[in-house]
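Anyone else keep sequences and structure tokens together like this?

Example one:
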Amino acid sequence: MKRSNINRILKDSEAFLEKHQVFLPPFGKWEPNDWKNLDASYQEIKDNMLGWDVTDFGSGDFDKYGLVAFTFRNGNYTAPKKYPKPYCEKVLLLNEGQELPYHFHRLKEEDTINRGGGNLQITVWQSTAEEMLDKETPVQLVKDGHKLTLDPGTVVTLHPGESLTTTTGIYHKWQVEPGTGEVLVWEVSSTNDDNIDNRFLRDIPRVPDIEEDEEPYRLLFGDYSKL
């Protein structure tokens, strides 16, 4: 992805969050220079991948395959004594016409909550022992306290205010119901680590390569290793 495109996406995302009165912690609005002289007391932000995330999953087409996320808080699988939080909280933005590709989590269990905007559609399948789509086994989920047993490949629609609990090993794909507009999604989950936890059905990168055609507007969590 070009840094100029990421900068534009972040500015649009901040405007959408402001419209829905979602307020970020201070580090969510830091400029690149604000990161340069941080002392060790801020290390949790870097170690636990807090902050902004923009990805096109290596597709080169953010408008078709893309996602924006901001992580407020998170634990750490590799340093649980240093960072004992067993939970993670994120806000995620999905545009109409975009898709979050099929994937499941090996470690993370999550609640996906539609907090406003359009309708979020989640297609669900069990995974096989070979980590492919299980086209035979029903999918068991909980939607707002209601236990569901669904046919493989069922599309679950979340209207604003509705949520879905997804456990490990369940493939899911996100998209927006056509004609309903951008969706504000909240995620409450166990500890998240995008370096080890995601199994995508197609072999695609979680964090994109960035072409530095202009200076960053905000840093992404993938930029922290360069500091």
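And example two:
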Amino acid sequence: MILGEVALDARLAALEFDGARAWLDEARRHPMEPLAAEVWVTDPGIGHVLLVKHRVRGWVPPGGKVEPDETPRAAAARELLEETGLRAELLAEPAAVAVRSYRADWSATLGLSYAAIVDSALPLGGEKGQPAAWFGLEEEWESVFPEDRDRIRAHARRLAADRAVGAR
């Protein structure tokens, strides 16, 4: 795992949750695994989010563990392809950095969230038994991480505002 890339993307992330940057500064002094990466995928109108139904966690953004010697950005793109069948260019600025435990028997770890904008008409594929689906951003979805709804919505509002300014 390339910790320099992790630290840079954590500093560049548009949103920070759970004291993630301070957590990372402390964690860098010790072995840090697993590290997680995910993608917050919205449609061009920024009205929908793409989620994957995990067998335990419920509806979550596509993502997973960063493999050794893999950057979080590369892991996010790989997980997006594996879980949804979609290849997408990730936006330059990471969407968020957070700290959470992904399993009851794991210690808390850093998760980097990247963003992508994808046409919702594209066919979805992915892993068997783990379907992907589009949800309206104002819809509720079942997840063991209910805070993700507000975090993804905040990111979407910021993205829409940035795009509106860029269109002027």
